[in-house]
Amino acid sequence: MGERDEEDRPFETTQGRDGGAGGGALTDLTRLHVHEMARLLRTGEVSSRALAEAHLAAAGRQNHALNAWLVIDRKSALAQADAADRRLAESRRPGGSGVAALHPLCGVPVGLKDLVSVKGGQATAGSKILKGYVAPFDSTVTARLRQAGAVILGKTNMDEFAMGSSTEHSAYGPTANPWDLTRVPGGSSGGSAAAVAAFHVPVSIGTDTGGSIRQPASLCGIVGLKPTYGRVSRYGIVAFASSLDQIGPLARDARDAAILLHAVSGRDDRDATSAPVPVPDELLDLPASDDEAASYLKGRRLALPREYFVDGMEPGVAARVREAVAAMEAAGAIIEEVSLPHTDYGLATYYIIAPAEASSNLARYDGVVYGFADRSSGDYIADYLCTRGTGFGPEVKRRIMLGTYALSAGYYDAYYLKAQKVRTLIKADFDAVWAAGFDAICAPTSPTVAFPMGARVEDPVAMYLSDACTLPVNMAGLPGISIPAGLSDGLPVGLQLVGAPWRELGMLRLARAYEAITARATWRDLEPAELHLTDDPTTPSPLERQARRTQGAPATGSGDQP
Questions:
Q1: Which pTM was predicted?
Q2: DSSP letter string over 182-196?
Q3: Deepest in the core among 159, 374, 510, 532, taking most CB within 10 A?
Q4: Residue 480 CA to chain centroid, in angstroms?
Q5: Residue 311 burial (CB < 10 Å; 0-12/13-18/19+)?
Q6: Count of domains in the chain?
Q7: Which residue range is the domain that position 259 belongs to?
């Protein structure tokens, strides 16, 4: 299998290395992983400002074709990078605290989904109704990233209020997948996933309510981790469904995901649902050696639930997942098929509970205190109705109506209360797996690869089925991670690992082990196939492609920049 020592890996500061499948001139700094950046920053071989400038240049140059970013804040990012460089320099001075005391994220570029509050910046949640809103405070996630010394480059695109599986429901236009610019990156954290896959940032923050970190990670060929509910504070995050939402990292490998998770996790008194559970420092020490990492698989019991190979799953996806499971078994893992009998009820249960919570959370957007307001009539009630009717997109309206109906008198017991009882049964299925001594569950992340833009917009049920394999994990409040497992028809496939509550470390060690045993797979060296097209200013934007699909509709309007 071979040992890889990153200390001996050559590093070039010149630009112009050929990046393989994507082709074109690439910037080496943007291809570094966080753990590589941390080493170079600590030794002074590279500066945080150089990293920031390289990533800002890539994001600014390619965002026209991807629309992954709603805001790229160059001025603030460079100021943060300069501050990180001063912090690094001070730690290296005799008598200083020493670079070992710094978090590995110090000086590293990071992207934030545009529902994370950053003081003085926007937080639109992908919605017109929050256009113009300026956050008066930092979210806990933002504050912890600042404490670590991370450099926040800007805010990424997303489905409106995190409601969607394709990032086509953003009020500011869709995001393209860098593997195929005519296809979706998944959602709702599609902007964050596309930005990482396109090398605009090494890591980014997303949120996962029913799969919105893991599904776009799968479709974009990167790592996406949903932590245990309560592991990361939700304070300062625009809410969708409060009992399901969880913040987590998107990265290009398990080590980087672990580093970002370590930085943002922990109890927060401002969020009553954040848990007083210690954050393991071992998250910063996942093995660098492939041999050491692979050894973790020996003797691990992994469950393979038959219900997760759902009807309609693409044969290529099923094949890649089964190949990944077979590879882990060959490396020493023990694979056993299990049944999670209430899985089939997960989709229906989710689409009662999540819309019900959304209808409550979104009642605050009335045009009175903040955000978009339509005051054209002069009548309070009429303006209120116009504000919500104009400010919310069709998917958000659909879910508000579904949730309001489920909570209404006469239907609460028949729908919402029954859904909560089924949710308990779904959790009990997982509890039985942990009680049987399994270390993790293996399953597909998405039943399909990235689908064409527009293919499911008019068919909400087909869109909802995109998350069939991820929803149950949110219902049970468990940690889950999607890791790349090869390609089907030239597009990425994700393998999902699900762990017991608070067992993110073990789950990440399994993910790192799978990376190790597939380190020499040819697909590991491939970059997104159409990434090189994003450097061409004549490449159509996702909004222009969307307008062409709708037969000459204007390329502005719903896609106006926030």
A1: 0.93
A2: TB---SSSHHHHHHH
A3: 159
A4: 12
A5: exposed
A6: 1
A7: 48-344+423-546
Domain CATH number, residue 122? 3.90.1300.10
pLDDT tens-place values along the chain, 562 residues long? 444 344 333 333 333 333 333 333 334 899 999 999 999 999 999 999 999 999 999 999 999 999 999 999 999 999 999 999 999 999 998 876 788 999 999 999 999 999 999 999 999 999 999 999 999 999 999 999 999 999 999 999 999 999 999 999 999 999 999 999 999 999 999 999 999 999 999 999 999 999 999 999 999 999 999 999 999 999 999 999 999 999 999 999 999 999 999 999 999 999 999 999 999 999 999 999 999 999 999 999 999 999 998 778 999 999 999 999 999 999 999 999 999 999 999 999 999 999 999 999 999 998 888 888 888 888 888 988 899 999 999 999 999 999 999 999 889 999 999 999 999 999 999 999 999 999 999 999 999 999 999 999 888 888 888 899 999 999 999 999 999 999 999 999 999 999 999 999 999 999 999 999 999 999 999 999 999 999 999 999 999 998 887 765 544 444 566 7
Return the ∠ at Cα 436 (arms to 435 and 439), rounded to 5°. Answer: 90
Radius of gyration from C-alpha coordinates of the chain: 22
Question: What tokens were used for 128?
Answer: 């017109």
Pair of tokens at residue 339: 């049944």
Contact criterion met (CB below 8 Å) for 154 and 113: no
Domain for residue 20, yes or no?
no
Q: How far is CA 465 from CA 70, 97, 313, 347, 461, in A?
A: 27, 51, 10, 8, 6
Burial per residue of 274-298, b for 16 or more beta-carbon CB atoms within 10 angstroms, e otherwise: bbeeebbeebbebbeebeebbebbe
Structural domain includes residue 277: yes
Half-sphere exposure of 226 (CA within 13 A, CB side): 35
Q: Which of 220, 273, 154, 281 is nearest to 449 (CA)?
A: 220
Measured between alpha carbons, how far is 37 from 7 in angstroms, rounded to an integer? 12
Going by their DSSP bridges, the two strands 301-305 and 25-27 should be labelled as unpaired
Please report whether residue 310 resides in a domain.
yes
The two tokens of residue 548 are: 């062409």
DSSP 169-222: S-TT----BTTBTTB---SSSHHHHHHHHTTS-SEEEEE-SSSTTHHHHHHHTS
**Six-digit token pair at 280?**
């393991």
**Closest among 199, 153, 253 to 30, alpha carbons compared:** 199
Give residues with Cβ within 8 angstroms of 79, minimum separation 6. Answer: none
Residue 28 is assigned to a structural domain of this protein: no
